[in-house]
Amino acid sequence: MDKPLIFISHKTTDSKIATVIANFIRDRTQNAVDVFLSSNWKFEGPRFGPGLNKELMTKLWKSNVLIFVYTSADQDWSYCLWECGVASDSGSPDTRMIVFQCGNDVPTPFVSDLRVDVRNPEHIRRFTKQLLKDPLPSRTEALAPDIATETLETAALELFGNLEKVLPDIHDPVVEWPAWPFLRVELPQTEVKKLEKLEIANRTERMKLSQEIVTQHAIVVKSDARVAQLFGLANLKDKLEFRELLQLWKEKFPTVDPTWFDSCCEQIRVGARMGFPVIHRTPMKAVGVDSEYTPVLSRVRRIPFGGSVHFDLYFYNLSDPQAVLAKSRMISIEKLFYKNMDESPPDSIKLKELVGELGQSGLNRVPILNGKKHPLYIVHRSMIDKFVAENVWGKSGKNPEDFTLADLLAEPEMKEMFENTFVAISQQCSLAEAKSAMLARPGCSDVFVTENGKRDEAVIGWLTNVDIAHNG
After folding, report:
1. pLDDT band at 8 (very low <50, low <70, confident <90, very high)
2. Class level of CATH domain 5-166
3. SS3 72
4. CATH number attached to the domain at 326-471
């Protein structure tokens, strides 16, 4: 007669728990049973090739015991439940179902059945005794009918201890929340069909009609507290009309155009047609804080039996300097006015001509790079003027018309200042990080963007303190 077969049904993410159970069964029965465990090559599992479900069905059909390893309700258990259904089919040989409950949740189909609470030592003792001393379904003899009580106790404690090492922490429950302020707008399907059929070519007229539909029929059916805060409220009342939310906002900002609401309506129209909405730069001023939030339609869900459609809107703070890459606001190297010391040596660059170039460019400073475009200096016009004024006829013996960049850099204090009044940041840095880096260096007023934020890398772009203050 073939060995009894124990099938362990589990999710791949719970393979460590399943392996502990499989090892226990194999060792304590001294290989008197076959254990089917798909996630561990040491045990019997499906073979490579076609017909996987057919092979699984054969094993499930023949299984004497099916152990269902269940952890938490937030997982997808459809495949495991399918395995349980095949094993318990009324036409198949008798299969004993054992649910290993590994957390607080209970699988719905087995709520009224006896389960093994793997965190309860007494439950583990009962399972161990039943496995070894009671005959398995379709069998007349137990696997170890004469096993001593002390040995059973040792085996149960071993299983309990090994499971404890791999079980998830039930004191750290599944928690979910929106990362940005969120609300869900509901429209009747009849009105959504009207939005679907809007084929008006004139954009202004089309937006007007879609806004009328949304304004008259949209209801807020779900939201988080942070959305309410954007509108200066503690929370939103149930079934709040979307237009009421607009009116509340208008009362706070009577002189500001509600372009954010127009954008919501247009995005809902496009979403109703299963299209990709355009995210317009139409931020909404938040109440009580100096921040702006841009509404973005992220999800549409049709509820056929409810006769409605849900539209999920998130409000993103895209104006936050933390969210803006410095790279997006820099002057790129292609548009940057700078001097390349390899192409134009310092003694060939006359200060008078350099001042003229700065004036024509509308700048008051110039980056000095080497041949590899690594940043070397930032030379300010004010320092050029100061140098020329301090080195007039009679002091340097040189005509100020002939002063060069080499003369300027020959002054130790000037050179040191030009070398230390800028910083380099990575191209992944935000405007806020650029500002922090600049403020951390005394006297710094310029930021170079390089690939990894190192001075011995090619400059990608340039930001001044004025750029950062304006954008951040």
Report:
1. very high
2. alpha beta
3. coil
4. 3.10.580.10
